[in-house]
Amino acid sequence: MENGTVDTAKDSKKGLLSNVTHEKIRLALKQGRKMIKQVLKNPMGLIGVCILVFFAFIAVFGPYLAPYTVNPEGVGQFDDLMPQSEEHIMGTDSFGFDIFSQLLYGARTSIIVGIFSAMIASILGAMIGLYSGYAGGWKDEVIMRLNDIVLSIPWLVLMIIIAAFLGEISLISIILIIGLTGWSGTARLVRSQVLSIKERQYIERARAIGSGDMHIIRRHILPNSFPLVFANTILTVAISILSEATLSFLGMRPIGVVTWGTMLSHAFSQGAFHIGLHYWIIMPGLCIVFVVLGFTLLGYALDEVMNPKLRKR
């Protein structure tokens, strides 16, 4: 009889936990749908989403839509530096690859570099800013002074030094170089947000009833800081794509892959304008500009949606 009562209590507890979980998921989905509607009502957000959906389609299906295969580690199928024609609407590059096919292949790699670099920078910056802001005192002072030193070094110079030290750069290397050098701005942003949040009344109430630091961080600090981190990550993607293009243009390009930055680098070194292959340098540049514009517009729109103070201005 007692075992039956215990089993019934356990089953009811499991059912209660399940219902609570389902309710949290339902509320999260509801908030997500509401945020998407607000972003799409924002003119900047709508334009940014349209641009990014277009390039996301190219990134996913580009290699399948490309008229010719591109293997940077292999040998091109065609003659070098062929002019525009019906078979090659943008011509061929100095390695004998179709430029239009390269453009479609490069979309996936460039966007992957931007997204993963931004994620690394945002996660690292958020962790450092969260710890610094919540710990306070001498720990906060030491971390922020180190952060100031990193901020005082120009980001591009720091990336060039690390890339030059590595020598041969792979796709993973370029992602790590950009991600591990771009966290300092996010750290300062998150730290200022945490300093504001931890002084609010509900944090004091949580401490008063005996909640531990990890519980407060997990239940109160992180959820209230996440919107800021998320919006900042979207903006960081744009900066990361530009950083990869800049490094590639300067000759520190990842080997074995095609990106819009590597296309620009090769086009400039071969004098694309002088030999009549204008699309070789114009199209990758335009793609970078529009993708960066899309992420920037979406980031500003998310910032307005998630930050009520901006909407009131």
Report what the structure shows.
Helix 2 crosses helix 3 and helix 3 packs parallel to helix 7. The protein is elongated and about 75 Å long. The protein is an all-alpha fold and 313 residues long.
List keywords for this structure.
mainly alpha, elongated, 0% strand, 77% helix
What structural class results from the helix and strand content? mainly alpha
Q: What fraction strand? A: under 5%
Overall pLDDT level: 84
| Largest sheet geometry | none
Tally of strands: 0
From the structure provided, what is the oligomeric state, counting identical versus distinct chains?
single chain
Helix content bin: over 70%
Task: Give the topology string: H per helix, E per strand.
Answer: HHHHHHHHHHHH
Q: Which spans have pLDDT < 50 for at least 5 consecutive residues? A: 5-17
Rg from C-alpha positions?
A: 25 Å
Number of separate helices: 12
Q: What is the first-to-last residue Cα distance? A: 65 Å
Present the secondary structure layout.
Blueprint: H1 2-41, H2 43-65, H3 99-135, H4 137-152, H5 155-166, H6 171-180, H7 184-197, H8 201-208, H9 213-249, H10 260-269, H11 278-306, H12 308-312
Question: Can I get a quick summary?
Answer:
This protein is 77% helix and 0% strand. It is built from 12 helices and no strands.
